[in-house]
């Protein structure tokens, strides 16, 4: 996020309470989304990975976030405790942001076929896809008046991107889960959508072999010939999480400066 950028202020989220997961530092996509939601009046709780307190606490203070809980999404007891903490503080929820993914570093490089292990595959699917289903179940139970849930995915689910490998398969499962959750929760007035940003410079990207190359390619192969901006992703999140997005559910929204629409480039022409 550009240092001098001010998230548009307003009241689109005034009176709305919700959870943002996945803030690890000021580069996290979840942080950009939280800044935008707070600038529009949302009351936010952070669920962060255990051990991240020292990094997350100062960020929470910047936004006036008072409810924080540690959660490891692979641990049911930790999930129970974290959601209980938020329930005790907020009672009900209006929105939920799932911004969590993990795969072993060894599986995010080279040959997908040769480097994918059973243990690594299941771990990536557990943390990056099943956790979304689990969070959607727990969050929707706290949304008696309807609500909006989003998750973060990447185009490596739709196309084979070098080194993205197991994570691409996990993201494909996550996107399918978004549609099934939207179908289940629609009658309760709960919308469920996925945002698909282009490559962005975060801790998660650093874990992928050739992550810098993904950034450069994302830029040069995009329609707009520019990086995906945090402001653009946060703005799309605001649209989906506020009442502006009221008729949109089960959708996969690309926020990637037009990376996903491109065929071959002029340089590739024979
Ligand atoms: P990030 O590293 O800042 O965020 C990932 C978060 O997942 C971290 O906060 C981490 O603590 C959390 N996490 C990992 N394992 C967990 C567990 N077991 N329990 C609880 N939390 C856990 O990186 P980011 O790029 O902001 O990633 C957020 C989301 O955006 C991810 O789903 C990622 O795949 C997606 N995404 C990222 C990019 C990109 O280029 N950075 C592009 C598209 C989509």
Tell me about this structure.
The chain is an alpha/beta fold. The protein has a single domain, classed as NAD(P)-binding Rossmann-like Domain (Rossmann fold), CATH 3.40.50.720. 41% of the residues lie in helices and 14% in strands. It contains 9 helices and 7 strands; from the N terminus they run βαβαβαβααβαβαααβ. The chain has a 7-stranded parallel beta sheet, with helices on both faces. Helix 6 links the parallel strand 5 (147-152) and strand 6. It is globular. Bound molecules: nicotinamide-adenine-dinucleotide. Nicotinamide-adenine-dinucleotide (NAD) binds next to helix 1 and helix 7.
SSE map:
Blueprint: E1 17-21, H1 29-39, E2 43-48, H2 53-63, E3 67-70, H3 76-90, E4 95-98, H4 112-115, H5 118-140, E5 147-152, H6 165-185, E6 190-197, H7 203-206, H8 211-220, H9 230-241, E7 252-255
Parallel strand pairs: 1-2, 1-4, 2-3, 4-5, 5-6, 6-7
* Head-to-tail CA distance between termini: 38 Å
Please bin the fraction of helical residues.
Answer: 40-55%
What is the strand tally? 7
CATH architecture: 3-Layer(aba) Sandwich
Task: Please state the structural category.
Answer: alpha/beta
**H/I helix tally:** 9
CATH superfamily: NAD(P)-binding Rossmann-like Domain
Which CATH class is shown?
A: Alpha Beta
Ranges with pLDDT <50 over ≥5 residues? none
Q: In sequence order, what are the helices and strands, one letter per element?
A: EHEHEHEHHEHEHHHE
**What is the mean pLDDT?**
96
Each distinct ligand = nicotinamide-adenine-dinucleotide
* CATH topology-level fold name: Rossmann fold
- Describe the largest sheet: 7 strands, parallel
Query: What is the overall silhouette?
Result: globular
